[in-house]
Amino acid sequence: MATSHINPQGRKIILGLSGGVDSAVAALLLKQQGADVQALHMSNWEDDDGYCTAAADLQDARRVCEQIDIPLHHVNFAKQYRDRVFKYFLDEYRAGRTPNPDVLCNREIKFGAFRDYAKRLGGELLATGHYARTGVSAGQVQLMKGADKSKDQSYFLHAVSACALAETIFPLGDLLKADVRRIARDHGLAIHDKKDSTGICFIGERPFREFLATYLPADPGPIRTPEGKEVGRHQGLMYYTLGQRQGLGVGGRQDSGDAPWYVADKILEDNALVVVQGEHPMLYSSSMATSNATWIGKPPEKLSRTGALSCSVKIRYRQPDQACLVRQEGSDLLEVSFAVEQRAVAPGQFAVFYDGDRCLGGAVIDRVFARHEMVRAAI
After folding, report:
1. What superfamily does domain 282-378 belong to in CATH?
2. What is the pLDDT at residue 37?
3. In this structure, which of 63, 98, 173, 323 has its CB flanked by the most CB atoms within 10 Å?
4. CA distance 107 to 365
């Protein structure tokens, strides 16, 4: 599978340039292949509080464009980001779930608002520095994992429409991260050793709870064991995620032994956080229900024909593929059974489905089920 199903030579391509090394090398490679490349730098967050690197990133983008000799456009999508991504982020945390805003950012901003703006600039095609690949089979565009499995970003791209993918080039799809750094260094790009950005863009390097508390005030409640014993107080259910170990404030109890404590459940109606010790069965799920399924093009043929599909799934980024059976329960509702029980499956996160290296699509995790369901019922 090649990096892309599109030959870029002679095409006008609008490339999303972040100011980092990946998008810079993507721009360089496209220009070397004879494309008419123009860069578009997006500003998606406006709060200047010392944590945001937007101003520095714009300056880096300008330096890259000067070195490569390509035009740079700049657009502010902060309003679209707040309306389409950040509002969803807060609503999900308010509901006690754990969202992944990067998936929505790709669908709504990078391949939504950005794509519309690129067309107004006269762009025929889009390009980004994502580690992913595309191809065509039987006339249908396919999204494939990037060659660098440690950097593959197909998980975050699974909700992008097939129409948008059909007009997109991923120049880094066949490269390893080390290759990208080497190309940047060999061509004298000033950002060749710039640190990769990590985490959610609008949070930056600040403590996550500190940021969230600015928008969702503390709402303290009890921390309980599955048996109903109160062992502490939490600051608000939105500040915790399933499987979390750090920051619970319940360690060192004389009656609890040495085993670490983990978040196992959230009881919204009681504003209670449920914790367990060690590798407790409540941390593991044998199946889950998902909603809002989206597919790259048409749903998998076997799922449409038989109502069931054997494939693999990731329930979080960087997780190795897990064998599963997907059953259709409605137009966009799925029941997913794991071949091996999974630890800390978090509602609000995305389940992304694969057939080998091909990304089929994904869905939002709604509920998880396991052998311990009777335990929760008794809490």
Report:
1. Translation factors (2.40.30.10)
2. 98
3. 173
4. 18
